[in-house]
Amino acid sequence: MTTEFHRIRRLPPYVFEEVNRIKAKLRAEGTDIIDFGMGNPDMPTPKHIVDKLVETARDPKAGRYSASKGIIGLRRAMAGYYDRRFGVKLNPDTEVIATLGSKEGFANLAQALTAPGDVIICPNPAYPIHAFGFIMAGGVIRHVPALSPEEYLAGVSRAMKHSVPPPNILILSYPSNPTAQWVDLEFYKDAVALAKKHDLLVISDIAYGEIYFDNNPPPSILQVEGAKDIAVEVNSLSKTYAMAGWRVGMVVGNARICAALARVKSYLDYGAFLPIQVAAAAALNGPQDCVDEIRAIYKGRRDTLVDSMKRAGWDIPAPPASMFAWAKLPEQYKDAGSMLFSRLLVEEAGVAVAPGTGFGEYGEGYVRIGLVENEHRIRQAARNVKKFLADSEKILAKAHNTMAGQ
C-alpha cells in the first residue's frame, strides 16, 4: 500500500517550514524574533466592526446554520462596495458569492472549474494557492515568469502557442503577493482582449486592492467592458479592515462561474458564522476612514523599512502597493540562495523573512518582507541586518563548514 495519498503526493514539502521551525526553536530558547515572514495584520479590527459582531452574537438565533453563498445582506454590501469603488454594477443574487476568505474562494473555484488535465496559466512567482488550488483539483499548471506585468502577458501569448492541450484559465493577481506589483486599467484591457482571443476564463485576485501608496487606487478587471463575459474577481476583507482571522472574502463577476462556485460550496459549507457576516456587511457599509488609517500605517512602515534598510546596506525597492516588499538578496548573500539566506538571517540576526523560492522557481534570489512589525521594530531589524551584512564572510563560512560536515 502506498504511504501517501494521490493529492498529497502532488504537493511539495512546504518551503516555509524550515524557517518556521527555526523561528519556533529560537523563540522557545528566549530569542526575540522580528518576524516579517507571514502577511498577518497586527493592528486591531476597527471597533465598530467588532461591536456589530458582539451585538449580533447575542441574538439567540445567531448560532444557526447560515447560507453557503453568504447572507443576502452581505452580498448586497459587497455589490455596493464594487459600485462605489469601481463603478461596477453587480447583481448580488447571481454575481456575488461570499467566501470563507479569498483562499477558500480560490480553492473552490478551482474545484468548480477544473477537469483532470486542464491546463492553467499561472504567474510565477505567485501566492501558492494560485497554483496548488488547481493542482489539488487535478489541473496542470503552466508557469509563466511574472517578475513584471509586461513579462507575464508576453509569456501568456507564448504559452498559448506551445501548450498541448491549450490552457483554459488565466490567473491574474495585482497588487501582487509576493512581488507587490501594481497595474493600471490598460493592463486589464490587454489581458481581457488576450483572454477572449484565446477563449480563456480569467480569475483575478485583488485581495490587496485597498493597500496602495504612491499610485492611484488599483483598478478592477471588471471595469473593462465585456470582462464579466469571461472573468471573476477574488477579493477579501482581511487586509483592508485588519480582519484576516475572520475569514471573509468574495468572488464576484461572471454569473456562470459564480453559479458553479455556489453549487460546489453548497456541498461543502454553510457559510461563515452569522455574526461575522453581519459585521462584515457593517465594515463595507460603514465609515471608511479606518481603511485610510490602516493604509497610512502600512505606508509609514514601508517608508521606514526602505530608509532604514538602505542605511544598513540593503537596498529594498519601495513597493507601490500591498503589505509586502519584494527584495533581491543583499550582494554579500546573492550566491547563497533565498532559502539559506532566510535561514541564516533568522539564526544570526533574529529577523524572519519569506524565501522567494517558496513562491515559485522564478522567486529564487528574492525574499518577501511583510510590513507586519511596527516602525520601532523595523529600525531594530535594520540594526541587526547591518551587523549581519558586515559579518557575512564569517557567517557564510560557518554555514558552509556546517553543511560540509553533515
Overview of this protein structure:
With 406 residues, this protein is α/β, with parallel strands linked by helices. It has two domains: 6-44 and 290-404, Aspartate Aminotransferase, domain 1 (Alpha-Beta Complex); 47-285, Type I PLP-dependent aspartate aminotransferase-like (Major domain) (Aspartate Aminotransferase, domain 2), CATH 3.40.640.10. It contains 14 helices and twelve strands. The chain has helices spanning 6-9, 17-28, 47-57, 72-86, 101-113, 128-136, 149-162, 185-197, 255-268, 274-285, 289-312, 338-349, 375-390, 392-404, and strands spanning 34-35, 96-99, 119-124, 140-145, 169-173, 201-205, 231-236, 249-253, 324-328, 351-352, 354-355, 366-370. The strands form three sheets. A seven-stranded mixed beta sheet has the order 2-8-7-6-5-3-4, sandwiched between helices. α6 links the parallel β3 and β4 (140-145). The protein is globular, with a radius of gyration of 22 Å. The two termini are 32 Å apart. The mean pLDDT is 94.
Q: In a few lines, what is going on in this structure?
A:
This protein is an alpha/beta fold.
Secondary-structure blueprint of this entry?
Blueprint: H1 6-9, H2 17-28, E1 34-35, H3 47-57, H4 72-86, E2 96-99, H5 101-113, E3 119-124, H6 128-136, E4 140-145, H7 149-162, E5 169-173, H8 185-197, E6 201-205, E7 231-236, E8 249-253, H9 255-268, H10 274-285, H11 289-312, E9 324-328, H12 338-349, E10 351-352, E11 354-355, E12 366-370, H13 375-390, H14 392-404
Parallel strand pairs: 1-10, 3-4, 3-5, 5-6, 6-7
Antiparallel strand pairs: 2-8, 7-8, 9-12, 11-12
Helix pairs in contact: 2-12, 3-10, 4-10, 5-6, 5-9, 7-8, 11-13
